[in-house]
Amino acid sequence: MLKTFAKSTLLGLSMLASLVPPLYAEDVLTIGVLTDLSGPLSETNGQGSVLGAQLAVEDFGGIANGRKIRVISADHQNKADVASAIARKWFDVEGVDVIVDSPNSAIALAVNSIAKEKGKAFLATGPATSDLTGKQCSPTTVHWTYDSWMLARGTGNAMLDLGNKDWFFLVADYAFGRVMEDELQKLIESKGGKVVGNVHHPINNADFSSFLLQAQASKGKVIGLLNAGADTIAAIKQASEYKISQSDQKLVSLVLTIVDVHALGLDTAQGLIYSETFYWDLNDKTREWSKRYADRLNGKKPNMLQAGAYGAVLHYLKAVDAAKTVDGVTVVNKMKEMPTDDPLFGQGTIRADGRKLHPVYVLQVKTPAESSGAWDYAKVIATVAPEDAFRPMSEGGCDLVN
């Protein structure tokens, strides 16, 4: 009797197991968008980065190397331990083949290390730290959209060339902010300027009043915001209350996007100078794609980070098809070997250190009178060539170069 019961129980469990689908199948290529879905970077990345990846999959046809493509996403909550746990689970349990986005430099560096350990591809479209193509470079990582060196050289050079030599920094107190501070200070000093003061603030900071008072007292010609997302928005809004833009001091955001300008409004943001590697109103191709994007995301136009998710995923899928594998090292090598070409960033290349090269556009926020309507927020005042926009490969210290 007991033997019969045991046999029927085992048979029942076996049948039940056969009805439960596996977490993943080998004939599915899984893209994991690891992003900020609920915190200060959720507007500049978040669901917009997920949508960028999804549009790339759609435009590629939904199948790569005979495998159906799926896109999943998760919220890293701006915590490196949370992001690391998700990345390991994705790679070890859920069959994720590539991780995309990962805003917040500390998180990106953690994911970069795990992807290298697991031999999986990492498309870093969200973080800014130039360490990803420097001492922390990896054979499985491509750094696509921008980096701290580029931001310093883009907006920083534009302001210095206009004679603004004395700077005060408001710095986000994590890897991204610190790296930006170091890069920009080197640039300023190399051009005969100086940093007259700085303050460091925690991520998701609500009150910048004391910091802005210090900045005003410093008499620096430029108050540079070396932060991102909600922190940048809060700082610019509070600076407007102090009427800094109406004084002799200039407020400059090193990391500003069209999404931020929309949140601020032209009355508050007008005159700000910043840099992006993509602008939705650049040409017919960017306008056409951005309309598709906006139709799917409540009318919002994309910024360079969300466009970066599209461009990087599209090129990754081309490389998977060409390499006939999803092995991280092999696919990334193929991505470097193949010229890049997409409607958002145009033609470009990926260097041996993983740095994606494309032009950088220095933008100035329009006045309300200059704008023709919703999302017509900026004008291009300078274009920086790819070879001038990013750090020379010989200066990064990446061991892949040799």
Descriptive key words:
402 residues, alpha/beta, Rossmann fold, 2 domains, four-stranded parallel sheet, 14 helices, 16 strands
Oligomerization status of the protein chains: single chain
CATH superfamily of the largest domain: Response regulator
Biggest sheet character: 6 strands, mixed
CATH topology-level fold name of the largest domain:
Rossmann fold
The gyration radius over C-alpha positions equals 23 Å
Overall 3D form? globular
Count of alpha and pi helical runs:
14
SS-based class: alpha/beta
Main sheet strand line-up = 2-3-1-4-5-6
Number of strands: 16
The topology string of helices and strands comes to HEHEEHEHEEHEHEHEHEHHEHHHEEEEEH
Number of domains: 2
> How much strand content do the residues show?
15-25%
Low-confidence stretches: 1-23
**Mean of residue pLDDT values:** 91
Question: How much helicity do the residues have?
Answer: 40-55%
What is the terminal separation in angstroms?
Answer: 71 Å
Question: How would you concisely characterize the structure shown here?
Answer:
The protein has 402 residues and is of the alpha/beta class. 43% of the residues lie in helices and 21% in strands.
Explain what you see.
- The chain is of the alpha/beta class and 402 residues long.
- The chain folds into two domains: 28-146 and 283-358, Response regulator (Rossmann fold, 3-Layer(aba) Sandwich); 149-276 and 360-389, 3-Layer(aba) Sandwich (Rossmann fold).
- It is built from 14 helices and 16 strands.
- The longest helix has 20 residues, at 304-323.
- The protein is globular, with a radius of gyration of 23 Å.
